[in-house]
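Both lines are quoted verbatim for reference:

——
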Amino acid sequence: MRSVPLILLATLSVICSRQLTNVNNGVGDFSIRLLQATFEENKNSLHSAYSIAFALGMCLVGAQGSTFISMRDAMGLSGMTEDDIKSGFKESTDQLAQLVPSPGHDFVISKANRVYVAKSYMIGTNYNQTLSHLFRSNSQLVDFKGNAAEVQKDINNFIKDATYGVIPMMLTKPVDTATIMTVINALYFKGSWRKVMNTLTSTEKFNAYICPYQVAMKPADAGQAVNWIQKKDSFAYQNSSELEATLVELPYYPNRKSSNSASMVIILPHPQHRCNISAWVKRQLNWISIVKTMGVMETRSVNITFPRIDIEADFQLSDKLQSLGMTEAFSNRANFSGMVDSGSADLRINSVIHKAKMQVDENGATAAAASIVTVGRSAGIKPVPTEEVFVNRSFVALIVLRQFGSIVPLFTSVVNQP
C-alpha cells in the first residue's frame, strides 16, 4: 500500500518571540528532512521531531565549537546563536507547561524531560542549572553498571507516566553499562473533535487501486479494509498546486486554561502521486510550503471522509541523524565540554532511540512519543460548493503546535496502512 499526508495541529494564539519562531521553523524543517530520511515505501512512518529536538537540545546546550555548529545546523537551527536557541527552547517549554490535563474535552499537550547521570561522573553545576531553567528537567544519579535492571525499570516507568500509559515500555533491555548520561524527552497529546464526527459504514477500501508494478494483483485483492470517519461541515480548506495536495483542517476542543487551539490537518497528495508517494514526499514536501499553504486556507463547506488511524513506529536514529550532518557529535572529536564546569568532558553521543504512537478515531486523537539520547565517553453571495475530500489513499499526518503565526510539528507520519 502507499502513503498519504495527515497533519494534526495544535495551535497557540499567543505572541511568539523571534527566538521561538526560529526554533519552531527549524524543528519543522528538521521534521520533514527526518521524514524523508526514514520513510520507506509501503510502510507507515511516524516520529515526533519535537520530542527528538528537545532531547537533542538538552545535549546541544552542552556542546561547544564545531560540535555545536554541526548539531545546530542538522536540527534546522542554522544561523541561530546559542543564546537565541536557549531562549526559544525555554519559551516553548514555558508555554507547553500551561497545557496540563483537565476535566472535560480540553486538548492536552504534556512534555517531560529527565537526565540520568552515572554516579561515577560529575556533570557541571552550570549545565545542570541550564537543564532545569530551560527544559524544566531534573537530573538523577544512577548506577548504569551495577544496577542496570533497576535503571531500565525507572526509565520505562518515567516514560509510561509521562505518556499516560501510551508508551508502557520504551526500553526492552538495559542501556549500555558504559553509559555516562541518558537524556530523555516524553511527549503526550490528546484532543477531542470540536465538531462531532460520524462513523461511516462502507465497503470502500483504503489504497484500493493497482499500480503498474502490481500487474499480477487481482482487483479484489487491492486495498485495505478500514473503519471510516465522515463529517460534512465548514472547515478550513486549500487545494495547493505548490504541494500538489489537498489540505483540510479539523479543529479540536480548545484548552480553557489558555488561548491555545489544536487541529488535525489532513494533507492528501493529488491522485497522480498515489503510486509513488515516496517520490512525492522527497521532492514535493517541504516545511516552508506547508506553512505557506496553511496561511492561506479558506473556510469552505467540506464533506471529509478518512480512516481511523492506529500506527506506531520506533527508530534507532543515530545513522539517520548523521546522514543529516550530525556526524561530529557521534565521533571521538565531539566537544561537550559545556556539560562540565572545567576541562574536557571526553563525551560523545552513543545512540538516539525514538518511539511514537498515534490513534485517530471519531472521538479525537491521542499521540505520544519518547526520545532517549545516550551519552558515553569518546572513544458575493453565491452558493458555495461542498468540497469532497475522500482520504482513501496514502497520506502524511502531522500533529503541530501553532504559536500565533509560528508553527512547529509535534508528530509527523506517513500513513500507508491505517
